[in-house]
Amino acid sequence: MKYFIVTFGCQMNVHDSEKIAGILEQKGYERASSKEEADIIVFNTCAIREGAEDRVFGNVGALKKMKKERPDLIIAVCGCMTQKEQTALEMKKKFPFVDIIIGTFNVVKLGEYIDKLKESRKKQVEVFEEGDIDELLPYKRTSGENAWVNIIQGCNNFCTYCIVPYVRGREKSREKEAILSEIKELVKSGKYKQITLLGQNVNSYGKDLKNPCSFAQLLSEICKIEGDFKVWFMTSHPKDLSDEVIDVIAKEDKILKDIHLPAQSGNNRILAKMNRKYTREDYLKIIKKIKRKIPSVRLTSDFIVGFPTETEEEFLDTYSLIEEVRFDSIFAFIYSKREGTVASKMDGQIDEETKRIRVNKLLDLEKKIQKEDNKK
Ligand code: SF4
Predict the structure, then answer these.
(1) Are 261 and 238 in contact (CB under 8 A)?
(2) Average pLDDT in the 87-93 region?
């Protein structure tokens, strides 16, 4: 029996797909090289942008014919998109040939849903509201010499444009000892040269633990593990990036001098409307500190253009922030309205053409900066 996984979205989802692969291999499935040769096809979905959701609907819909020809083929849809109850129900109605529809927290029980489906021949649809971190699940790692290690799941920040807190729940940190022993095993295996720590907001790590441990302390302890490996992490929230973390990055050779710090906007009114809890001045202060303490740092960031009510002047504040920091690379996104978020109900939605023009201006600026820096 063979499986094929289609993954949409971020690194958290890529890592979740490694967990899904581990669960399926434990059940005796082997990886298939195409959907055609698979006995089970799993779509691990993303809800962050409308385009990602449309792609999932398109991809799942395209399997109708295959399922008709091979009724024993199992089709499962899971992840952030189906964590939203309304979307799970829409999926069920629109695609009656899908066998399993589950949310992000139900993934740990995928094996049980497959068994129940085979026994009862009845569609399995279930979405849990919350879930604990399961330390015992196997992972089938697929990212070459890089190993993803989840340190915290969920998010408490509720940025007004973001669906993550609604589909990944509140912050839950893994126990420090569990993380350290996972990394020790990975390093000992000799297969991995890079350990990437994952979380929606890694800087928040440990605040919820019975024995609190800061992200800086965790990084220091990881660096004490013997072996030839590098450490990286994502993603950081500027309001939680402490001096302690910057100092550890500066001091430890094992930590890559590569910081991804999403700014999202360079305008204070828009940052407040986004509920980012820092100002342009705060952000620039952190950047100054990072550059001073880590002169070789490689800085990257995320930006959203066309947030509701964003004026041309306010957009130009984002433009000037990028000019001032001179990031090594940026990810610029057009604001996409997500049902269920605060921003989706805001007045003053910006038209698509204006958003497109603004995002292109940022990308042109990025190219210009890179060209100048490459010349240097
Ligand atoms: S910090 Fe904001 S953007 Fe990041 S996952 Fe949490 S709510 Fe979303």
Answers:
(1) yes
(2) 92
Q: Is 201 in the pocket of ligand 1 (CB under 6 A)?
A: yes
pLDDT the model gives residue 302: 97
Residues of the chain with CATH 3.30.750.210: 149-256
Which backbone phi and psi does 301 adopt, to 5 degrees?
A: -155, 165
State the span(s) of the chain assigned CATH 3.30.750.200. Answer: 257-376
From-to residues of CATH 3.40.50.12160 in the chain: 2-126
Q: How far is Cα 152 from Cα 9, in angstroms, rounded to an integer?
A: 18
Lowest mean pLDDT among 102-106, 276-280, 326-330: 102-106
- Could you tell me which CATH number the domain at 149-256 has? 3.30.750.210
102-151 pLDDT, tens digit each: 999 999 999 999 999 999 989 999 988 877 777 777 889 988 999 999 99
Q: Is the CB of 264 under 6 A from ligand 1?
A: no
With a 6 A CB cut-off, is 22 part of the ligand 1 pocket?
no
Within 8 A by CB and 6+ apart from 317, the residues are: 265, 266, 267, 270, 280
The model's pTM is: 0.90
- For domain 257-376, give its CATH number from 3.30.70.1520, 3.30.750.200, 3.40.50.720, 3.60.140.10: 3.30.750.200
Ligand 1 center from residue 165 Cα (angstroms): 7
**pLDDT recorded at residue 135:** 77
Q: What is the mean pLDDT of the chain?
A: 95
Q: Which atom of ligand 1 is nearest to the CA of 235?
A: 4
The proportion of the chain whose per-residue pLDDT surpasses 90, expressed as a percent, equals 88
Phi, psi of 154 (to 5 degrees): 80, 180
Token pair, residue 320, equals: 């000037």
SS3 of 287-330: HHHHHHHCCCCEEEEEEEECCCCCCHHHHHHHHHHHHHHCCCEE
- The CATH superfamily of 2-126 is Methylthiotransferase, N-terminal domain (3.40.50.12160)
Which ligand 1 atom is the nearest neighbour of the CA of 201? 1
Residue 183 has pLDDT above 90, yes or no: yes
CB 315 within 8 A of CB 357: no
* Residue 329 pLDDT level (bands cut at 50, 70, 90): very high
